[in-house]
């Protein structure tokens, strides 16, 4: 993981991500998610095996690097994936992650500011997360870093949730992380940061 983190840290993709997150628009949205709190919790679903997949190592590296870069990310990153071996669990714990033992199926109800990091999760997990937090007092406390929800494939699969969100007077602010590094296109293709705010 150390080699992967160093490689990612020097990549054009990571530099583009930092620039986007530090931009006034995104910083403002992060402030709205935080509210009166000083830190938000990062919850990771679906990274996969860091033993066998380079993309998974790159995706976990981004999370660890972001935690080091931004003091508004809580040091305790929570992570779940059903394929984790004992070795992978140990490695993630050594990096400051808490490995969840229960499969939440992304149905976690937000009670504190939370950033959900969901690299290439199946449609159902995004749907579960949005359905579980449909009320504005939950959605306003969360952000999602993962596959773009504006893609036609996502719009098709999430149409029920999208209708409910629109009916509740909620809009999504999406900030695409531009793919500037071919080396990481497979690991972070069409990734965006998503925030939820009221129309009023």
TrEMBL record:
Residues 41-195 form the SRR1-like domain. It comes from the Eukaryota. PANTHER family: SRR1-LIKE PROTEIN. Belongs to the SRR1 family. This is Protein SENSITIVITY TO RED LIGHT REDUCED 1.
């Amino acid at each position: 993981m150390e080699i992967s983190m160093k490689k990612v840290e020097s990549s054009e993709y990571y530099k583009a991500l930092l620039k986007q997150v530090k931009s006034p628009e995104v910083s403002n949205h992060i402030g709205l998610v935080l509210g009166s709190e000083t830190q938000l919790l990062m919850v990771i679903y679906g990274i996969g095996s860091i033993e066998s997949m380079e993309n998974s190592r790159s995706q976990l590296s981004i999370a660890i690097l972001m935690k080091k870069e931004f003091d508004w990310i809580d040091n305790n990153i929570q992570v779940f994936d059903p394929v984790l071996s004992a070795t992978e669990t140990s490695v993630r714990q050594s990096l400051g992650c808490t490995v969840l033992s229960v499969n939440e199926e992304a149905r976690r109800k937000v009670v504190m500011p939370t950033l959900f990091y969901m690299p290439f999760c199946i449609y159902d997990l995004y749907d579960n997360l949005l359905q579980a937090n449909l009320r504005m007092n939950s959605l306003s406390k969360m952000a999602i870093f993962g596959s773009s929800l504006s893609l036609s494939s996502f719009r098709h699969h999430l149409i029920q949730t999208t209708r409910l969100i629109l009916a509740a007077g909620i809009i999504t602010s999406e900030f695409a992380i531009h793919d500037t590094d071919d080396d990481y296109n497979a690991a972070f293709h069409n990734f965006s940061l998503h925030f939820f705010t009221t129309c009023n």
